[in-house]
Design brief:
alpha+beta, three-stranded mixed β-sheet, 6 strands, 27% helix, globular
Length: 127
């Protein structure tokens, strides 16, 4: 998909996701004091950022969708295959970039995406 123009609202949302230590829900993004657009526009921007390969969706064990910055994707195709960690104490959802799940599929199957979320206590809460 061709990259769309970079509006101020789009840049603010991308910066908010980029600067966050954990993945954010659309509601958290929408209610940030930095975001000055309505809910529909926020969702459109999130869809656009995902289509452009700048962010990715994380679905947690409780079916909440969060958004995190893509650190290794270089175009519209998402190239990351990493684990997401959901802290049971602070509820943060973190991308564990240096982890790589091993999935063995039968020869007739083709792997295109992996979505794994593990739960536990993060390093900040364990300290």
């Amino acid at each position: 998909m061709k990259k769309t123009r970079n509006t101020k609202a789009k840049q603010v949302i991308l910066d908010l996701i980029t600067d966050s230590n954990s993945a954010l829900t659309a509601n958290e993004i929408q209610h940030s004091e930095l975001v000055a657009c309505d809910r529909v526009t926020t969702y459109r921007i999130l869809d656009r950022l995902q289509e452009e390969g700048l962010i990715h969706r994380v679905v947690t064990h409780d079916s909440i969708v969060r958004f995190a910055r893509c650190r290794t994707c270089v175009d519209e195709t998402h190239h990351h295959q990493h684990v997401h960690f959901n802290c049971q104490s602070c509820q943060a959802v973190l991308c564990l970039e240096n982890t790589s799940p091993t999935i063995q599929l039968p020869a007739q199957f083709t792997l295109t995406e992996v979505h794994i979320t593990v739960s536990g206590i993060c390093d900040r809460c364990n300290a």
